[in-house]
Amino acid sequence: MVKNTSSNKISRAALWLCLAFLVFPMFASYFFDDMFSSISYLFSDASRLELAWDSATYGVYLGGYSMLCVFGGMVLGGILLDRFGLRLVGTIFMFTMFLGAIIILFAMTYGFESKLSLGIAYVGRMLFGLGSEIGGVAVSRSIAKWFKHRNLALAMGLQLAIARLGTAFAFIIAPLLVSEKLAPQVYTLSDTARPVIFAVILIVVGLFSWLLFVLFDYRKSKLYFDDEDKSAEHRLNERFHLSDILNLLKNPQFIMIALLCVFFYCCIISFKKFAAAIVIPRFDMNVESAKWLISLIPFFTVVFTPLFGFLVDRVGKATIWMIVGAFAVLISHIILAFAPAGISFYGYFAISLLGLGYSLVPSAMWPSVSRIVKDSNLATAFSLLYWIQNLGLLLVPIVVGAILSSGENNITVVYAEYFFIVLSVIAVLVSFCLRVYAKMKGNTILDLSMRK
Questions:
Q1: Does pTM top 0.85 for this prediction?
Q2: Which domains does the chain have, with CATH numbers?
Q3: Over the Cα atoms of the chain, what is R_g?
Q4: pLDDT tens across 197-208, in order?
């Protein structure tokens, strides 16, 4: 609860300094997560990699991100955040993210045989994924705490935009770090390790940025907040109630937001991991052109996510924004699947729509959670959403990797797009259901502007 005394009014400088500390850990996380996306074509031929991974192996590695998240880690992390506080638990999981990154670097540079390197990297990927997701919850919860009464959607939009700038940076930098080689030249371990080394450096900087926020939050919270910055003793005396989770799961709006979250993000995040492997054969592109094409996704979000967040704050209508965004992603995947092959215009048009959809839905969806969940359970709510999302992110990359490894590239990339179309259709249907339910029940809280 924000104190109402004028002397304790939160200054704009404090708000934006707080946000500045919070954005970089997720920027680094997004870079690390997408460090191979624009060079995923490397895994199309394992014989040309000293690492000896193919697309199926790469898909299994990607799925490791969600393993611990799915099997209890996300929910447990959210409960710990609500009970022990953002600073302590957030720091523990930020260090977990760093540890996972170091293990992945070790697996990809030591020279293990393919299966062993995958096994070690999978362990690192699990730790990185859990640390990144709980760290993301801590960041979202911190923004909700500081911006609850002041431009919350805009702040979350800016955080998402800058985080996704990390993805854009990865798309552009990775091909520069790993230069394309002509067959039958082999990519050495040192070649494939360069993006990982660069990403680990960013993770270290992001960890330092989080620690600066922890210090800032510790010193300033007592000035601005009452019950949100309770003493450790008070918080430890609070008991976790299973009913807190059950109440969330009984909330139809929360369930529909969760379903939208998983199907929508699987259409984009999983696509990004294989984007280069899909658009290069689909539109007859070279690596340089493909790099800039898929970079449009995060660049669009950098521009439009804060803008749409501002509009959500000012005009409301969050459920409509979610429908439009989900529909844009569906049209994008239909174009990627059915457009004439070899014509790059269709690729640029489809990816632009994907970027717009990727900006619209999160701008409306994430701030909506704080409107239907009480503050004391907000971290648990975010964690449940990430947990459900990670159920999809655990399985979808494995399925897509298997599809791409099953035959000729020109055919399998279209089959992969059919799969994304099915997921997109479900996302659109769920977003419609959320809108219809709100109208039927007369519950318009999601569509109110921040002023109302």
A1: no
A2: 21-236+248-447 (1.20.1250.20)
A3: 21
A4: 999 999 999 999
